[in-house]
Amino acid sequence: xxxxxxxxxxxxxxxxxxxxxxxxxxxxxxxxxxxxxxxxxxxxxxxxxxxxxxxxxxxxxxxxxxxxxxxxxxxxxxxxxxxxxxxxxxxxxxxxxxxxxxxxxxxxxxxxxxxxxxxxxxxxxxxxxxxxxxxxxxxxxxxxxxxxxxxxxxxxxxxxxxxxxxxxxxxxxxxxxxxxxxxxxxxxxxxxxxxxxxxxxxxxxxxxxxxxxxxxxxxxxxxxxxxxxxxxxxxxxxxxxxxxxxxxxxxxxxxxxxxxxxxxxxxxxxxxxxxxxxxxxxxxxxxxxxxxxxxxxxxxxxxxxxxxxxxxxxxxxxxxxxxxxxxxxxxxxxxxxxxxxxxxxxxxxxxxxxxxxxxxxxxxxxxxxxxxxxxxxxxxxxxxxxxxxxxxxxxxxxxxxxxxxxxxxxxxxxxxxxxxxxxxxxxxxxxxxxxxxxxxxxxxxxxxxxxxxxxxxxxxxxxxxxxxxxxxxxxxxxxxxxxxxxxxxxxxxxxxxxxxxxxxxxxxxxxxxxxxxxxxxxxxxxxxxxxxxxxxxxxxxxxxxxxxxxxxxxxxxxxxxxxxxxxxxxxxxxxxxxxxxxxxxxxxxxxxxxxxxxxxxxxxxxxxxxxxxxxxxxxxxxxxxxxxxxxxxxxxxxxxxxxxxxxxxxxxxxxxxxxxxxxxxxxxxxxxxxxxxxxxxxxxxxxxxx
Length: 690
Known about the structure:
The protein is of the alpha+beta class. Helix content is 43%, strand content 21%. The strands form three sheets. Strands 1, 2, 3, 4, 5, 6, 7, 8, 9, 10, 11, 12, 13 and 14 form a 14-stranded mixed β-sheet that branches. A six-stranded mixed β-barrel has the order 17-18-23-20-22-21. It starts with a helix and ends with a helix. 35% of the residues are buried.
């Protein structure tokens, strides 16, 4: 019986070729789009779930406010990990991570500029499940200057040789013994590394300092232990640990400190929620936002509904043609059930055919989609047990509902009138088909609105005034490779007619590396504190980046005392409450020594975005020191002579640097990386709807 239904379905398919192709293609496209989105969403939601203890691992960060500055940091103080382990029995393991700077690694005649470089405690492999190919996870990071490298790094430096026990040389003068080889990190990890170095290799000047953060701290809780229970204990724990140092460095008790606008606490967040849900600043790597997941799930659902409605509408559109056939079948004695089964078989057959075509289309377009989404998705659907049932049940549901609706639609015709050549349909089906059309228009309007919102957001990001000019700025990384030849390098660069300005800085807009400092106004109460982010720059910082002065002046070699001067941004002036900030004094509180360092305000720059635009502009201080060893050399260049300038800069670099490779990037491209999630969303949306 079933085979007969299928044979008839095939004959109908061949009889109405054009209609069948359009109908199947429409549903297949909708299914293919939904499957691609499903693969993307599943990958985004899978971050960090590959760890054996994933649901027991939590990251501990710092949250609170200092004066009028609210903060939530992904980092925490150095002594926190051991303190949590010692004072809370529910904490089973703890480890810390510090992100290393980009550096050059050498082995014999091979050298590479490495950017995936972290330090961690010897307990790293007790917490995280990154499998070792060689080496002992319990001892791999125990000794100072021990290093675990990835399989990719091993192949890069050693080819097929066994690297265990061999020594890699780091550009800053350190030698590291390879004690382990780790499998390449999964893409769905919120941090990645090619080089994992023992934390014992560092001189931890802040190892007992509770007022200086900078360590990513992870703990493993007892299985099924409520994290909220630990969170309730943290305020008291924080006061206990912070109190002695607040008294030492600020000269006040923690009660006096808290009675002002100051507050600090630790918070915990699940490892599996960091990538999508964490709103903390200073992440190890850029994260995404769960709102994009909700958005894509909604879009996938709307696409599927739209495809199903089209499939139903096209199927029932030929009901007038099929009505005569059904009438003849009834006259010949066919029961209503058999007619329903036949129509169901046809609809299910078409829908399953559409699913097969959709899967083939996904396989075909997946490489292109991966390029757009910055992913490496695979079509291994059966690795996810829940995906095949969803696809099959959803497709069957579309076929069954369409079949039933077709039968209902045909049943509204007057069979005698149809057999006489007069359709004479009843009026029961008109309102439903009209409703489907209205619903289709509603979905189309929603998609158009989403398109407008995304386009507007991307346009805003591209055209927003950042407060500085990011165009035509070439940035040379690792400037300290020049050692004491930095000024000579700058002097040589300015000889080129295509280079108008050069500046040496500790960091640049859009990059990490901004320092943190606490300032007080002169003669203010000891509990009145102001937190600043700062960079160290030279005399040409504002000219190179196109930052305007709001009042006062910038640093100048005409003034010998400028090394003890400071330039603030407008937000900082408002925060301090200064009406005439120039010539006012600020006292810097060093967290590592008992002293106040006075700085004279000589100028105010207009506010500029040094972080993503969704982050509020904070208090900024610009300092000037000479000599110092900056990280970046930024050049404002003539865009018409770009290739010539790059070659000239590289030649000068090779002449003056100390065995360091030439590394550069463009400021606009670097800053745009901050909006990778937004651009990816726009590209994916464009992929489906244009």
